[in-house]
Amino acid sequence: xxxxxxxxxxxxxxxxxxPMPQNTAKGAAKYPGxxxxxxxxxxxxxxxxxxxxxxxxxxxxRTKHLFYWFFESRTPSHSNTPVILWLNGGxxxxxxxxxxxxxxxxxxxxxxxxxxxxxxxxxxxxxxxxLDQPANSGYSYGANVTSTWDxxxxxxxxxxxxxxxFPQYRGPLHVMGESYAAHYVPANRRPAASGQQxxxxxxxxxxxxxxV
Length: 212
Hints:
By secondary structure, this protein is α/β, with parallel strands linked by helices. It has a single domain (2-209), classed as Alpha/Beta hydrolase fold, catalytic domain (Rossmann fold, 3-Layer(aba) Sandwich). The protein contains 5 helices and 10 strands, in the order H-H-E-E-E-E-H-E-E-E-E-H-E-H-E. The chain has helices at residues 2-12, 22-28, 96-101, 148-165, 181-193, and strands at 37-40, 52-59, 64-71, 83-87, 106-108, 115-117, 127-131, 141-142, 173-179, 202-209. The strands form 2 sheets. Strands 1, 2, 3, 4, 7, 8, 9 and 10 form an 8-stranded mixed beta sheet that branches. It has a two-stranded antiparallel sheet with strand order 5-6. Helix 4 crosses helix 5 (181-193). The radius of gyration is 16 Å and the shape is globular. It starts with a helix and ends with a strand. Residues 7-35 and 204-212 have low confidence and may be disordered. Its EC number is 3.4.16.5.
């Protein structure tokens, strides 16, 4: 039932802004500026056969806290292994939807009690980074953004911190998404690639676009 509930909450965020999770709120009270970094190094859900990391990275002077879930490639990693940054659209949809129902290394089981290995996961030959953005999408929380470009600036700052913490994943970066991500993806390309010393290269792809 936990997985079913989690998936329900993810879908609900496409319509309603989600408040700060209770356990995160309690922890954040100890840090008035918010967490600069809060993660679980090895989650046991989804694909325990690969290295994982999930948690929050704070951006915009710690006023926004972006939730991510990262999976290493199933193929032995090397310095040129690409990183796929996946962004769902909406605007306001959680990228965990793409993880659990799309390109991720696992799917929710039919009974909703757990996850099952997805042989078609895109982490066969690439690292996968799912990011809930902008703030208040999915499990991310904090100050609201007022434009797609503001959201892109937060993603660029997120990536800088991510690569500082995980310098081993400096392969080419591919920013991908669907639906309203047709706005997010191009907007993120410029600030992510411009002057970001930890980012090796950037290109962009988007499916089922909504670019009105």
